[in-house]
């Protein structure tokens, strides 16, 4: 296991009380002195800080949409992504059973540990320190946030996109599973026959794989050339709009 000093460097925060960080990285399978209370605290701090970041960044969004956007940013998958970027799995202290079953890759364990780290920073350095650490980790995430989606997941966005085009909903099929029963990896295929789109993506659960496949399908739709009918309709509309002007000029 690498030294936690490199994790502190990634967080850009040095703990005065190193035992807090050790506890934050300890899963209940390893010791009774585990991270669940720190996770509870970190979850509360995280929600407040992310709410404040969104409030300042999007001044024209109402409270309901802010709540949905925040929920998307603090959900398990989003936290697991940040934890992966920090290579948090290298520092986790897990029991033998969790180690054998690949617990260090499990999104729930990674997300909980990250919240516990935020809680540990809060106890060690106060709210300002926790706010800076959280804001720094969310900076690259917020750059790509589109308030128009309002935190909607890829499957919902794909469904709305197809409904707007009056097309049938996509079909999701599990085409393969890999690994042991307690640590399976699912591969899901997403098909949109009318657009001749077929994409597949892996995930730690069927739902996660479906979301990833939906995201690929959205990208595939965006890459499609404009339909011939749409081009013809636009050209016809343009001609119709210009006719009154031409007639008016002839009548003068």
Ordered list of secondary-structure elements with their pairings:
Elements: H1 4-11, H2 18-24, H3 36-57, H4 63-73, H5 76-85, H6 96-100, H7 107-125, H8 127-142, H9 154-164, E1 171-178, E2 185-192, E3 197-203, H10 206-222, H11 228-251
Antiparallel strand pairs: 1-2, 2-3
Structure, explained:
With 252 residues, the chain is mostly helical. It has two domains: 4-142, Ribonuclease III domain (Ribonuclease iii, N-terminal Endonuclease Domain, Chain A), CATH 1.10.1520.10; 154-228, 2-Layer Sandwich (Double Stranded RNA Binding Domain). The protein has eleven helices and three strands. It has helices at residues 4-11, 18-24, 36-57, 63-73, 76-85, 96-100, 107-125, 127-142, 154-164, 206-222, 228-251; strands at residues 171-178, 185-192, 197-203. Helix 7 crosses helix 8 (127-142). The model is unreliable at 235-252 (pLDDT under 50).
List keywords for this structure.
single chain; 252 residues; mainly alpha; Ribonuclease iii, N-terminal Endonuclease Domain, Chain A; Double Stranded RNA Binding Domain; 2 domains; three-stranded antiparallel sheet; 11 helices; disordered C terminus
| Low-confidence runs | 235-252
- For the secondary structure, the number of strands is 3
- Side-by-side strand order of the widest sheet: 1-2-3
CATH class of the largest domain: Mainly Alpha
- The number of distinct structural domains comes to 2
**Mean pLDDT over all positions:** 87
User: Portion of residues in helices?
Assistant: 55-70%
Structural class: mainly alpha
Tally of contiguous helical segments: 11
CATH superfamily assignment of the largest domain?
Answer: Ribonuclease III domain
Radius of gyration: 24 Å
- The secondary-structure element order is HHHHHHHHHEEEHH
* CATH topology call of the largest domain: Ribonuclease iii, N-terminal Endonuclease Domain, Chain A
């Amino acid at each position: 296991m690498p030294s936690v000093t490199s994790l502190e460097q990634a967080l850009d925060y040095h703990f005065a009380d190193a035992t807090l960080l050790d506890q934050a990285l300890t899963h209940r399978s390893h010791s009774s002195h585990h991270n669940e209370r720190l996770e509870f605290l970190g979850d509360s701090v995280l929600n407040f800080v992310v709410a404040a970041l969104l409030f300042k960044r999007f001044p024209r969004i109402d409270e309901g949409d802010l709540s949905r956007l925040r929920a998307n940013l603090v959900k398990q998958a989003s936290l697991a992504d940040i934890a992966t970027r920090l290579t948090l799995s290298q520092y986790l202290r897990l029991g033998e059973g969790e180690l054998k079953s690949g617990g260090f890759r499990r999104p729930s364990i990674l997300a909980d540990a990250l919240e516990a780290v935020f809680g540990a920073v809060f106890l060690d350095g106060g709210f300002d320190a926790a706010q800076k650490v959280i804001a720094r980790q969310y900076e690259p995430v917020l750059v790509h946030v589109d308030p128009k989606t309002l935190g909607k997941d890829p499957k919902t966005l794909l469904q709305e996109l197809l409904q707007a085009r009056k097309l049938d909903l996509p079909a999701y099929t599990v085409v393969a599973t890999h690994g042991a029963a307690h640590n399976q990896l699912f591969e899901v295929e997403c098909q949109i026959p009318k657009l001749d789109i077929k994409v597949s993506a892996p995930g730690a659960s069927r739902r996660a794989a479906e979301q990833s496949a939906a995201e690929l399908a959205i990208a595939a739709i965006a890459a499609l050339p404009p339909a011939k009918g749409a081009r013809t309709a636009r050209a016809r509309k343009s001609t119709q709009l210009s006719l009154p002007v031409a007639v008016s000029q002839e009548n003068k």
